[in-house]
Amino acid sequence: MSPAGKWQPLSLVFLLGMGMAAGDSSCPSGCSCRYLEVNCTGRQLQEFPTAIPLDTRQLILAANNVSYLPAVELSFLADLVYLDCQKNLLGDDLDFTFIGVVKLVYLDLSFNNLTQVTFSTFSQLLSLVVLKISDNPNLVAIEKDAFANNTWLRHLDVSRTGLTFLDASTVQDLPNLRFLGLSDNLWHCNCSFLDFITWMTESSVHFPDADNITCYTPEALRALKMPAAEVQLDSSCQTHLHKQDYIFLCFIGFCIFFAGTVVAWLAGICAVIYQIHSSKQEEEEEEEEKDAVT
Predict the structure, then answer these.
(1) What secondary structure, in 3-state letters, does 184-207 show?
(2) Is the CB of residue 98 less than 8 Å from the CB of residue 59?
(3) pTM (2 d.p.)
(4) Which of 116, 192, 257, 293 could form a disulfide with 141 if both were Cys (CB 3.0 to 4.6 A apart)?
(5) How far is CA 184 from CA 194, 211, 218, 230, 239, in A?
(6) Distance between terminal CA atoms of the chain?
(7) What is said about its interaction partners and assembly (predicted)?
């Protein structure tokens, strides 16, 4: 047998071994696995599954009862780019959860129990493009700088939550944002919300289901769409003065003028008195000098 023939089986074994090392053949119990993907949809999981291949890039945990995502276990999946956790029981303890999956591009946390989003929730996800946190009825607060690090974010959905307010800078500073879901929230359309509404009407971002992006409070603006709400708020949030206000301002102006005149008059009198007193003192000093000489 030639040396080439002798080493061919060994080369094949070596390549197979490398292939097994590159792709872990394990799969979580009850889940289905294929190349770089683990699908555990609707398996009634109570906890984050174990034995997930470390080279997994797509992990689907939709429609389970998972209430906690362990940051350590997630960090082992360093190549993960797609994570679907919709329809679970995830709560408000997600800060620093995704610190080890920095390659994540797609994240779906819709239909959960999120209550707030802080800067620490998604700040590690520098490559995030799609973020779905819709249908979280207990989500009532998104911090002003919550997405400050997610500059690649293109698709953001916060529809059907408990949000009543969103600072304009939270989304207007996202240079790649093209899609923003805001429908069926409890928007409180007051003067503080006017900046956000103005940004919406002037922005090139697409707002799906725009007919259902309406004011919830105050009662006078209930069910009003954002363009119409902007007109109402532009009018009501400007400073309007009544007749009594003008009279009061005129009275204050007169008082200030009169007080200034009186002060100037008193200052003038004091100056004259001082001048007269100084002149008399000089004359007395001159007379004393003359008497001393004679």
Answers:
(1) CCCEECCHHHHHHHHHHHHCCCEC
(2) no
(3) 0.74
(4) 116
(5) 18, 9, 15, 18, 31
(6) 149
(7) Interacts with KCNMA1.
